[in-house]
UniProtKB/TrEMBL annotation:
Sorted UniProt keywords: ATP-binding, Kinase, Nucleotide-binding, Phosphoprotein, Transferase
Reaction(s) the record says it catalyses: ATP + protein L-histidine = ADP + protein N-phospho-L-histidine
Limits of the Histidine kinase/HSP90-like ATPase domain: 243-340
Name of protein: histidine kinase
Length: 350
């Protein structure tokens, strides 16, 4: 193995550099006798500077620096067969908290070519490691709480959906019954999102499974004869953040409900196709049916999208809506052109 890099110092300045350093430093001979220690080292590890000169490293303090692995690495560094880079050790002292240290060491040339000198830098990372552990614990706790909240929300949505269906069976007005059914379908779509959030790693939602199950839920609640009407889903391997999946799911819900209600009044057979694909920051969501079709233009868009939920969600995703004749049927294309991170742009700040 090649000899470790050598840092050159003039002999007269070496001690001054070490002693005045703001970093905990030790200047050692080849046999690990301490030639000098920085004031920062003495202060950090509570060692009287007057007791240091002439002592071996293993004799410092109460003997806590007598670590065989560290001594072995320093010998290898002195011989040129290795060097210490970011070596982590635990400094254990009687009746004191253990401190986590990072050690770096290399040979230096202080002007005398007949002897070897070592410069050892010590960084105390105890507080940093504790902060990192605390942060990790908080993240894990937050994730557990989030999953619990999502689980409870999903259960609540299921209850709300059940109440809506019971209310729909009791009301006499066909118009009121229709509104309750529509509300039920929308609540169920949000419940599907919540189920995915509770099982998705890192809050990301894999769209193929999510949109497939969403459409299966819509079909089960709205299609009485699956042999007559069907919903097909074709989605690539895209995964999006939770808030984006909610918007996409609501768009699909609105468009599928609209197609099931209006596209096939007298047709013996019908099909709705859901598609999603992304390339870099660009993505396209499509909902196409082979029904009776609808006129294009702004008036048709307003009529087809009803409450304007789709337009609002599309604006939130910074995407454009294109309504066209699918010959036969209708095609609604939601498209976005954006950065190469694969995600729709975040909505503009209010």
């Amino acid at each position: 193995m090649s000899k470790a890099p050598i840092v050159h110092f003039e002999a007269a300045s070496t001690l001054a550099v070490v002693v005045s350093s703001n970093e905990p430093l030790l200047f050692l001979s080849e046999d690990q006798t301490v030639i000098a220690a920085s004031t920062s080292f003495c202060r950090t590890f509570e060692i009287d500077p007057a007791t240091i000169p002439g002592k071996r490293l293993r004799e410092l303090g109460d003997g806590e620096w007598a670590m065989p692995q560290l001594a072995s690495l320093l010998r290898a560094t002195a011989s040129g067969s290795a060097q210490i880079e970011a070596y982590e050790i635990d400094l254990r002292r009687p009746n004191r908290n253990t401190r986590q240290l990072v050690i770096n060491a290399r040979t230096i040339d202080d002007g005398d070519k007949d002897r070897v000198r070592l410069l050892m830098a010590v960084t105390d990372v105890t507080a940093m490691r504790a902060e990192a552990r605390l942060k990790d614990d908080l993240i894990r706790e937050k994730a557990i709480l989030m999953k619990e909240v999502q689980h409870r929300v999903a259960n609540s949505l299921q209850i709300i959906a059940s109440v809506l269906m019971q209310s729909a069976r009791r009301v006499q007005s066909e118009e009121a019954r229709g509104h309750l059914h529509n509300a039920h379908h929308r609540v169920m779509s949000i419940a599907t999102v919540q189920r995915h959030l509770s099982t998705s790693a890192g809050g990301n939602v894999e769209l193929r499974t999510y949109l497939t199950q969403l459409c299966q839920s819509l079909g089960a609640s709205m299609i009485s004869d699956p042999d007559r009407l069907s919903i097909e889903v074709t989605v690539d391997d895209s995964a999006v953040e939770a808030d984006v999946s909610i918007s996409l799911g609501l768009i699909v819900t609105e468009l599928v409900i609209n197609a099931l209600k209006h596209a096939f009044p007298d047709q013996p057979m019908g099909r709705i196709e859901i598609g999603y694909r992304s390339t870099g920051g660009d993505w396209t969501l499509s909902v196409t049916d082979n029904g009776i079709g609808m006129p294009t233009g702004s008036d048709a868009t307003k009529a087809g999208l009803g409450t304007g939920i789709v337009e609002a969600l599309a604006r939130n995703l910074r995407s454009e809506i294109q309504l066209s004749d699918a010959a036969p049927g209708t095609a609604v294309i939601i498209s976005h052109r954006g950065p190469s991170d694969g995600q729709p742009n975040a909505p503009p700040a209010a």
